[in-house]
Structures are given as structure tokens and as C-alpha cells.
Amino acid sequence: MKIAVSACLLGEKIRFDGGHKHDRFITEELSRFAEFVPFCPEHLAFGTPRPSIRLLRLENQIYVHSNKDDTDLTERLIQTSRDELSKIAHTPLSGIIFKSKSPSCGMKSAKTYLDNGFCEGKEDGIFASMCRERYPLLPMEEEGRLQDAWLRENFVMQLFAYDAYEQFKASFPTVGDLVRFHTCHKFLLQAKDEQLYRELGNIVANRDALKDETLLAMYELGFKTAISRKSSIKRTRNVLEHMAGFFKNDLTKSEKEILHEQINDFTDKIIPLIVPLSTIALYAQKYDIRYLLDQTFLNPYPKTLALRSHIDAGK
Ligand code: SF4
């Protein structure tokens, strides 16, 4: 999979002061499963090192001004942001990771100032705003927010699910293939958004006998929207209970009690999600329940990322 990343996060010495903001999770963990496409609209516009810039709000319009001499640099940065956008648009991306707080790359974290020098709020940076408009359904996050275990787990799950859909789409799927794809993703979708999960089930059932292209387009929109939602402990618990129901005639009373205790302990944030999930995976293997073993919810991304081993990964 390919992910566009702010070049300074990859360790490139490209910031205004000639420094970088190397992020080890990106270069040491995600790099094992993704190729990166770097971008830096400010380096392209002004070179490195360069005077720092700020976002200025004047009459409800956002401008870019130099902190050194207050020159208006708006047009120049917009042009190089467009250039970087067309560069990354040549690559089939599965996501973008931005540097937080930057006037170019921040996602709702770039400070905006008034003419009198006071900070008045936070906005998307110039480049991040263009990316949002160009790719409304593409997974996007800032490295700052990815320090939070819950946001990190949600984002990585979204990246891999998005990439899975893109690969599925590239295989010229039939409606039968769509049914199989949906079946494998049922529990993952249910953990994200119960309502969308049901709507996607109705789309796949195709009671209105829609054309294949229409059906796939509707499914894609619903699927990509659902995976962008954040999972919650409550919804995840429902999914775990649902999965546990598959063994109700196979487990002994004490085995059932242990599994339910693990689910309760996960809900109470005493143990991480990986514990009840491993027990469910074990019983699914033991009783050869193919439907469960095929669920992407059990393995939504490579297990070595170990993102479900943190108690804080659930909220
Ligand atoms: S413009 Fe973006 S990529 Fe370039 S240094 Fe600033 S935050 Fe990093």
C-alpha cells in the first residue's frame, strides 16, 4: 500500500529551520507494510531554510504571510500545494499522514491569526485543505493525533480496510464477489457503525435489482464512510458477544463464563481487546467455524503492529 506523508516526518531535513520531525512509528512500524510518497509544499515554494510563515484571517479569507517581513505568500504556497497534489495524485494512495500544526500540513491544528497578531483559532493548513477536498473518503491523520492509541488503532484499521477495498475494486468484481467481500467484513463494519453496516447489507441484497456498477458505487461510498468512523468499546463489545454466540452449543459452562469474563474485563478497561479476541479465535479454530475465521475483524492488519494490546486502544 502507498501512503503520502509529510516529508519532515520521514526524517528529511526540510523544515523552515533546516530540521526534521522524524516519526518512528511511521518509519519503523508502518514502513514494513507501506511505501511512502513524501511531499513538502513549503520547501518547493521557498526552499530550506526559510522564514517561518503563519495563516492570517482577513475578512474571513485565509492568507499566508511571512513572519519575517509580513510579505503575502499566499499565491506562491497555493501554487506549490497544487503541484504537490498533482504529484501525489499520480499514485494510487491508501492514506495520507500530515505533520500537525503546520500552516501547510496541519489538519484543523494550524493556528490562524488576526491582523493584530492575536491567535483566533485553528484551521486546516493550505495543503491539507486541498487534500481533504480532493480525497473526501481517503484515510487521513496527523502524526500528533496518532500518539493516541485509540486514534492510531482506528486509523491503521481504516488504512488496511481502504486498501483491501481498492484491491477488491481493481479485481473487476462481480456481485457474487461483493457478497463474499461484505461477508468477511461484517463484524468490522458492525464495530464501526451499526446503521451503515445494516445499510450495506441491504445494498448487497440488491432488492431493487440495480445495475452492477451502481451497486458497487453505492457499496464503495458506504464502506469507505463506515471504516472512517471510530469504533467504541460498546460497539466492540456487541461484536464480541455476537461472535461468542457462535460457540454457545460447544463450550462448557465454565468456558463460557471465562469468555464472558474476558469480554466484561475488556469493557471495564482491565484487559486489552487482544485477550477476548484471542480466545474467540482459538475456539473458532477448535470448532472450525469458517465464518468467524474469515472475518477481517479478527485480523484487520498485520498482528506484529500489536495495536490491540494496549488498554488505551479502546474508548
Ligand atoms: S510543509 Fe509540511 S512537510 Fe514541509 S516541513 Fe512543513 S510540515 Fe513538514
**How much is the average pLDDT?**
96
How many β-strands, per DSSP?
A: 8
Cofactors and ligands present? iron/sulfur cluster
Low-confidence stretches: none
How is the largest sheet built, in terms of strand order? 2-1-5-8
Task: Provide the β-strand percentage band.
Answer: 5-15%
Order of helix and strand elements from N to C terminus: EHEHEEHEEEHEHHHHHHHH
Distance between the termini: 28 Å
Binned, the helix content reads 40-55%
Report the C-alpha radius of gyration, rounded: 23 Å
Sheet with the most strands, sense and barrel status: 4 strands, parallel
Query: Tally the helices: what do you get?
Result: 12
Shape: elongated
| Total number of domains | 2
Give the helix/strand class: alpha/beta
Structure summarized in a few sentences:
The chain has 2 domains: 2-146, no CATH class; 148-315, no CATH class. It is built from 12 helices and 8 strands. It has helices at 24-29, 41-46, 74-89, 126-134, 149-170, 175-192, 194-205, 212-228, 233-244, 253-267, 274-286, 290-293, and strands at residues 2-6, 35-39, 53-58, 61-66, 95-98, 110-113, 119-123, 140-142.
